[in-house]
Amino acid sequence: MNLRTLLETLTSKHQLSIQNDFFSQDEQIAKQLYQTKEQATIFTNTECSQWKVAGGIYSQRQHIALGIDVPENKLITTLAHAFENPSKNNIEDHPKCQECIIQNPDLNDFPITKYLPQDGGRYITSGVMIICDKEFGLNACYHRLMQINHNQFTMRMVEGRHTHQAYLKNNNKLEAAVCIGNSAAIMLAASMPAPDNIFELEIANTLETTNLAKCITNDLLVPADSEVILEGHILPTQTTEGPFVDLTGTYDLIRQQPIFQVECITHRQNPIWQILLPGKQEHKLLMGMPKEPVLYSQLNKEIECTDIVLTLGGGCWLHAAIQINKHNEDDAKKAIQIAFSVHKSLKHIIVVDTDIDIHNPLELEWAMATRFQASRDIVILQDQPSSSLDPSARHIPNQKSKTDKLGFDATIPWNENKIKFISII
């Protein structure tokens, strides 16, 4: 279901807060969402009177599951199936995302939000960017955008990833479109590390029918039901991006980053502007949770993985808990090695048996307390590639961050009497 349909569904379930009082886009909207612990909320009264602002919509796994119409306990397997079975999208000629067309727009007319006092400026946080790689075709991914004037943003472009590679291939200039107000299927798929030749929105199309539309000013294809589309170019020019809070709740590094220039904006009638609180649960879930099915699929090629979660305490990025059905003595250690190789930002991993609920931190700690011995069950990897989001990692300018990594085998020891390791209460 698209964003509007989900909002209607949440309203019918009394799970959507509607705020009719005035809220400023300069910190007031964000402050309200922080105070309510990201309750799904729609703001009807902002400086930009034409616009409603929605936040906290995908801050719970149950809302994400609702958005793709599956039970919460089927999220991993459903996402894994879509990842492995992308399907071609249909193209619409008269999409809803182009009901209104604004050439040469002024960004000050839109409810672009400032989240915290120390932020470098107003940011777009929920935008899915569409670009085209000369070699591999279309790509969908996330890039935060900091407004710098009436028609330009500084974008965070992670070095080495698809957008950066396409940008370099095209002499540091690239057509791009940013899509705001998207379905859960689109939001999840855009965060999945799809193979180079797979367009992420084909994964979304397997989760639910996701029709596309050709942009007004270029040949890029965007979701037909998105609330807003920003069309433009990524330029060779760079300027300062940040400061801005990232997954760990700490400020990310300030960098020189490329400029995204907006040339046309299209949107639906009675538009809804979607925002995403930085460093909070919605941010973590949408960035980290789509990595879980990829890990799940890769693990099950060599062992029997029954569940996996990137934990909230690790920002849904740095820490993983893996549940396995152990068939061989080294299955847990094999799971650790595979997970580190697939998701290179992981820092700590715990592997447990099927009787441990990996979504319950108390049960994970109990497994560590009763089944783990450091001299036997620990995996240590030193000086490994890591995430720049970890402030404790070793950061050298223009080089990949490095860290030390730990894996914990908290499964029942292979040659022991298993009865004594089972809780009876």
Gap from first CA to last CA: 42 Å
Strand content: 25-35%
The helical percent reads 10-25%
What name is given to the CATH topology of the largest domain?
Pnp Oxidase, Chain A
How is the biggest beta sheet arranged? 9 strands, antiparallel
What is the tally of helical segments? 12
CATH top level class name of the largest domain: Mainly Beta
Number of domains: 2
Fold blueprint:
Blueprint: H1 3-12, E1 17-19, H2 28-35, E2 41-43, E3 52-55, H3 61-67, H4 75-84, E4 100-103, E5 123-124, E6 128-133, E7 137-142, E8 145-147, E9 152-155, H5 162-169, E10 174-180, H6 184-189, H7 200-207, E11 212-214, E12 221-223, E13 228-241, E14 255-267, E15 272-274, H8 281-288, H9 291-299, E16 305-310, E17 319-324, H10 331-342, E18 348-352, H11 361-371, H12 374-377, E19 378-385, E20 402-409
Parallel strand pairs: 1-2, 3-15, 17-18, 18-20
Antiparallel strand pairs: 2-3, 4-14, 5-8, 6-7, 6-10, 8-9, 9-14, 10-13, 11-12, 13-14, 16-17, 19-20
Helix pairs in contact: 4-7, 4-9, 9-10
